[in-house]
Structures are given as structure tokens and as C-alpha cells.
Inverse folding.
């Protein structure tokens, strides 16, 4: 994939897939994982239309024809966004290999952006500032329990599908350390009054299942896809001070029971850190010096798909558990009851 | 046979209950059931407690309401597949009754999908062009994904192996249908390659991945998912198909070619009699399902209905943006 500086009408610009574009009061806002750029323009709708059409398939002339923006304006904006790292030009004739150090540093950089974006979701902000009802806090704890329990659904799939013994060994080691971590969340749920019977009878939300199924699909596709997805999950607990601050806020917001319930979750983060689970991707590709670009790209796409799935999960938890009828857990739930 | 008030009853989530002075209205997208009663509030309370499955007689405890009235309302709702007796299929005394119970469950689950806001917004002309074309793109991804989960369904059919020919024929009938939708989108001015490279919404992927997992579990859960996807509810004739898509073309004229593709596909399904689900034929050909299989089939139907609810919610949420449709962008990192 070539990178060509400067807007040229016959090249096909690509706006980063993880960039969020919106506008208000005549100002276009571009959010790149917490780095926000504002562009004032007289034709904000056309500019927004132009940016979201930059998908690497259309050249700038065609994009401007569709959006109605002047080509000269588009070229200026593209130049700015190329400098900001938000846009680049796609040339599919280039292929080959990438060195693994570049790949892992790309992963780390993307993980940082994606964590900002995920934890900027209303669910996580609302839990941290205590603005969400207690039912959502309990629901989040329940779904987190199922998510952690889901290591039994996903990691064995990755082990079984790894042909490379060195990669298989990393996954096996990880599984041996990780398989029973649901116990931490069982302790939390016991404190919150979600009984073992309820847990056995209840079902994860469809989006919790979607996260597990996404990981199972990645594991069947390529161990590297699984590793890059898993690397993102592990990275969310890598910054211990941030994670502990989140749990401190969370506990304090939901009373004494909340404080006691989040303590085992915080213990879980500490244990993962002690195991060094944050460096997962590096371990998986430690014995390779280069990666095929196509394979590397598929792995990153898979990881970004996981991030979007986790955003969907966050929305689902918020929507489902804000309804007081969601609890207590039962064998059949009323999913998305239409408002009267 | 026990009356419904003694059974474990579940009311469809999309059903809305309104009370008047001496009446109660139970409203869905397709019907309004009006009940004259002296106790509308009590009846509404009983019904609203059945959004989570429960035994009506237990729910009614202490209320001033006649059992006959509640039973009569439940019977009316059951005729329209707006309530189900959750244990009917596992308590069935013979094979045909268990099949009937499971097919009723499939219709109930399918109806619950069509009661979600996407459909009322669509049919009142309130969707943006981005949402309408976005629906077409996501549906293309879903139809194309038949080449992922359907071969798994054939390959993992291990218990009722006699049905593999049926499953294989069904897959062959569906395997090329993605192109119909893609052509429709292109005729709406959407760039072919942009659609092919656009990653599906996570909601669409969640649905497809679930169907793959149900296929891997085996032919019962796999076929049960089709019982929800092709339940034979209302569009089983050419006239019904034509009428539905003509109305959509009237509401969203810019998407006419896309709806022609939808219509073409629906008519193929009518010709192939896909309303007679592979699930019903699997049950009949295999002489009925075991208790465990019935239970798993019911679970699969519920999981598929929830996944479709999410699928349509994803379209409403994710394409609500600025109005005009733009395909989702693939993740290609600079330098890679």
C-alpha cells in the first residue's frame, strides 16, 4: 500500500474507518479516537458528505460529483487531513510484507485510539459518574460475568485452530491462566444478589453472545486475527491506574454494596497485569520477523470489528437494563419491549 | 386440555396495551384487538405482566377480574400468534402437536421482529435515504453470508442425515441471491466495489455469526433458524409481494430498483415455497424431535429473533446520519 502526500484528483482517498464525522452549527467535527478536529465551512453538509464517501474506492472527482463540494475545497481539506493522519490514498497495486515491530506498534497505537472511543460510550461514562440507574450497573456486571466466562467459548477455539506450535503454546499458557477468572465475577454477582440459580437459568444478551461469536469466528479464520482481537481486550485492563480509578468511581456510585462488588473485579485486573496479559500480540508474533500485508490487514480489520461489536454491546446493555423489567434474570427475557 | 390461564404464557414484546373507560385495546402493527370490559385497568395489568413469561392465573391473584375474560383475551391473542404457551412444544403428547407448537413459536418470534420500530418507521415513510439504502446494503451482506452459514448447516447435519438432501437443495437455491440485491443497489447509483468492500455493521455480523454457530450445533437449530426467517406469515403470494413493494416504491421512489430486487427475491421464495420451512420438513421427515431437540429449537428461534431485532436496530442507529447514504469504510491503515 503506497502513501502519497498531497491531494490528487485521480487518486482514491480513504478516511480512517474509525474516524467519527459529525457536524453542528456550521462546524464539522472529526473525532479520531479522542483527537478532535473542527473545520468551519460554509457548506458543512457537503463537506461531511465528501468525507464519509472517502472509502478508497472512489477518486476525489467522483466523490465531489456525488457530494456537490467544490473540488478545490475538497483538495484543501484532504491536504489538511493527510497531514493529520486521518486520510491517506489507496493504491492496491502495492502488496508485500510488513515487519512485525511496525505491526505491533500499529496495534498499540490503534488500541489507544479505540480504547478512548469505546470508553467514551454513554454506558462507561454513565457508570463512572453514577448517572445510570442501579439496574444498569447490575446488568453490566452480569454481562461482564458472561463475557469473562466466554473465555471458555473463545480461547479453546483459538488453540484448536492454531497450526503453529509456538502460537498454540502461547494460547495454551494464556488459557491455563485465564480459564477460571469468571470466579471473580461470580463473587461480585453474589454480593449484588444475582444468585447462582439465576445465572444458570439466564441467558447472555445477544450482543454478549455476539462478542463471543466474533472471537470464535476470528479464531477459525487465523490465529493472528484472534491474537489481535484478544490483544485489544487485554489492553483495556493494561493501564492499571485508569482501570482502578474506574472501579473506585463505580463502587462509590452504587453504595457499600457497589464498593464490595467491584473489589473482585479490580482484583481480576491486577491478576491479569501480574500475568503480563497486556503483551499478547507481541508474544504471538515474537518468532516471526515479517507478516504478509494482506494477513496483517485482515487481523486489524477483525480487531476493529471487535471494537464496533463492543460498542454495540455497550448500547445493548444500556438499553436493556435501563428497563426495570430486565431484572431479576429469568429463563426468558422481554427483549426490546416497544414503548407504550 | 388446560386453559391458557393455567399455562406459562408470554406476550409479544412489540404489543402495545391501551386502556379506555370500559375497554382495552391491544395494538400491534398489523392488528388492533378491542375488548369491552368493566375492569380495563386490571386486564391491562395482567397482560403487561406477561411480557415476562408467567402463569396468568398466578398473576391475577387478588385482582377483581374474571378468569373467563382473561382466558377469552388470551385465546384471541393466541390465534394471532401474539402470545405463546412457552411449554407447549415440550409438553406435546405427539409428534404433530410438537411440530405445530414449534411452528407457532416460530411465527411468534418472527412477528416480534416485525413489531420493532424499524418497520413502523419504514411503512410510514419516515426512514432517511441513508437508512433505506443502508438496509439494502446490510441485507446484501446478510444474503451473501448464506455462503458462510448454509454450507456449515449442510456439513454439520449429523443426526437426521436423511434431511441432508433437503438442506443441500435449499442452500443451492439461495447461494447466488446476493447478486440480485447487489444489482438492485447498483441501479440505485451505489458503487459496486464500495458495497463489496464495506464491512457489514456489527449487528449484521452478529446475526450471521449466530447463524453459523447454530449451523455448527446441528440441523435442528440450523433449520429452526429458518423457521423464523421464512415463517410464511403474510407474503406468501405474488399479489401480497407486489402490493408490499409497490408501496415501498411509492414511499421511497429513489430506491425503486433496490425494491425491485427485494421483490424479485421474494417472488423466487414464493415460487420455491420457502414458506414451507425446512424446519417443518425436517420434523416431519425425521418422525418428530426429542424433548431436548425441541427445547434447543425453541432456544434457537428466540436467539435468531433477538439477533434480527438487533439487525434492524443497527440500520436505524448506524445509518441515521446526514441523510444521503455512504457505504461504510474498510479499515486500511496507512502504510499497510
Amino acid at each position: 500500500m503506497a502513501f502519497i502526500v498531497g491531494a490528487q484528483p485521480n487518486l482514491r482517498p480513504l478516511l480512517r474507518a474509525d474516524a467519527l464525522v459529525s457536524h453542528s452549527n456550521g462546524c464539522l467535527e472529526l473525532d479520531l479516537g479522542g483527537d478532535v478536529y473542527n473545520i468551519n465551512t460554509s457548506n458543512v453538509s457537503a463537506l461531511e458528505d465528501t468525507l464519509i464517501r472517502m472509502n478508497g474506492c472512489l477518486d476525489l472527482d467522483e466523490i465531489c460529483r456525488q457530494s456537490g463540494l467544490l473540488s478545490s475545497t475538497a483538495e484543501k481539506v484532504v491536504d489538511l487531513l493527510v497531514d493529520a493522519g486521518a486520510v491517506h490514498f489507496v493504491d492496491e497495486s502495492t502488496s508485500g510484507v510488513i515487519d512485525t515491530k511496525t505491526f505491533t506498534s500499529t496495534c498499540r497505537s490503534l488500541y489507544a485510539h479505540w480504547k478512548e472511543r469505546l470508553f467514551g460510550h454513554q454506558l462507561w461514562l454513565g457508570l463512572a459518574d453514577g448517572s445510570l440507574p442501579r439496574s444498569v450497573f447490575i446488568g453490566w456486571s452480569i454481562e461482564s460475568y458472561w463475557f469473562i466466562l466466554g473465555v471458555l467459548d473463545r480461547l479453546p477455539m483459538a488453540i484448536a485452530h492454531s497450526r503453529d506450535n509456538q502460537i498454540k503454546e502461547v494460547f495454551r499458557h494464556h488459557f491455563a491462566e485465564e480459564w477460571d477468572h469468571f470466579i471473580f465475577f461470580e463473587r461480585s454477582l453474589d454480593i449484588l444478589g444475582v444468585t447462582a440459580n439465576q445465572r444458570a437459568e439466564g441467558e447472555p444478551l445477544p450482543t454478549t453472545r455476539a462478542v463471543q461469536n466474533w472471537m470464535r469466528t476470528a479464531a477459525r479464520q487465523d490465529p493472528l486475527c484472534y491474537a489481535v482481537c484478544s490483544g485489544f481486550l487485554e489492553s483495556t485492563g493494561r493501564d492499571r491506574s485508569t482501570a482502578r480509578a474506574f472501579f473506585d468511581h463505580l463502587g462509590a456510585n452504587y453504595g457499600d454494596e457497589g464498593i464490595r462488588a467491584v473489589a473482585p473485579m479490580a482484583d481480576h485486573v491486577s491478576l491479569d497485569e501480574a500475568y503480563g496479559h497486556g503483551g499478547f500480540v507481541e508474544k504471538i508474533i515474537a518468532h516471526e520477523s515479517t507478516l504478509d500485508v494482506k494477513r496483517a490487514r485482515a487481523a486489524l480489520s477483525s480487531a476493529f470489528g471487535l471494537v464496533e461489536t463492543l460498542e454495540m454491546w455497550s448500547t445493548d446493555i444500556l438499553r436493556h437494563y435501563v428497563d426495570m423489567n430486565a431484572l431479576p434474570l429469568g429463563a426468558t427475557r422481554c427483549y426490546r419491549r416497544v414503548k407504550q | 386440555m388446560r386453559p391458557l390461564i393455567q399455562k406459562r404464557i408470554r406476550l409479544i414484546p412489540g404489543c402495545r396495551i391501551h386502556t379506555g373507560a370500559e375497554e382495552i385495546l391491544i395494538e400491534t402493527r398489523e392488528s388492533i384487538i378491542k375488548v369491552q370490559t368493566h375492569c380495563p385497568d386490571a386486564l391491562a395489568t395482567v397482560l403487561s405482566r406477561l411480557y415476562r413469561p408467567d402463569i396468568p392465573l398466578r398473576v391475577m391473584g387478588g385482582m377483581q377480574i374474571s378468569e373467563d375474560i382473561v382466558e377469552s383475551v388470551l385465546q384471541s391473542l393466541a390465534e394471532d400468534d401474539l402470545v405463546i404457551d412457552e411449554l407447549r412444544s415440550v409438553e406435546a403428547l405427539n409428534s404433530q402437536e410438537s411440530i405445530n407448537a414449534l411452528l407457532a413459536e416460530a411465527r411468534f418470534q418472527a412477528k416480534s421482529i416485525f413489531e420493532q420500530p424499524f418497520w413502523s418507521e419504514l411503512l410510514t415513510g419516515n426512514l432517511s435515504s441513508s437508512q433505506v439504502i443502508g438496509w439494502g446494503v446490510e441485507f446484501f451482506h446478510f444474503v451473501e453470508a448464506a455462503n458462510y452459514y448454509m454450507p456449515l448447516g449442510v456439513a454439520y447435519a449429523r443426526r437426521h442425515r436423511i434431511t441432508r438432501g433437503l438442506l443441500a437443495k435449499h442452500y443451492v437455491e439461495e447461494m447466488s441471491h446476493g447478486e440480485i440485491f447487489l444489482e438492485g443497489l447498483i441501479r440505485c447509483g451505489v458503487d459496486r466495489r464500495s458495497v463489496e468492500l464495506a464491512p457489514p455493521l456489527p449487528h449484521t455480523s452478529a446475526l450471521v455469526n449466530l447463524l453459523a454457530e447454530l449451523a455448527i450445533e446441528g440441523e435442528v437449530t440450523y433449520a429452526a433458524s429458518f423457521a423464523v426467517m421464512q415463517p410464511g406469515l403474510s407474503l406468501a403470494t405474488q399479489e401480497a409481494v407486489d402490493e408490499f413493494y409497490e408501496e415501498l416504491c411509492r414511499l421511497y421512489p429513489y430506491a425503486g430498483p433496490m425494491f425491485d430486487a427485494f421483490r424479485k427475491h421474494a417472488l423466487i421464495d414464493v415460487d420455491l415455497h420457502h414458506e414451507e420451512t425446512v424446519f417443518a420438513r425436517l420434523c416431519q421427515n425425521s418422525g418428530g424431535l426429542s424433548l431436548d431437540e425441541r427445547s434447543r429449537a425453541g432456544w434457537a428461534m428466540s436467539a435468531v429473533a433477538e439477533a434480527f431485532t438487533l439487525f434492524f436496530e443497527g440500520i436505524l442507529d448506524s445509518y441515521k446520519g446526514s441523510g444521503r447514504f455512504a457505504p461504510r469504510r474498510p479499515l486500511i491503515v496507512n502504510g499497510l
Strands of chain A lie at 12-15, 20-24, 27-32, 35-40, 87-90, 97-99, 290-292. The longest strand of chain A covers residues 27-32. The radius of gyration of chain A is 22 Å.
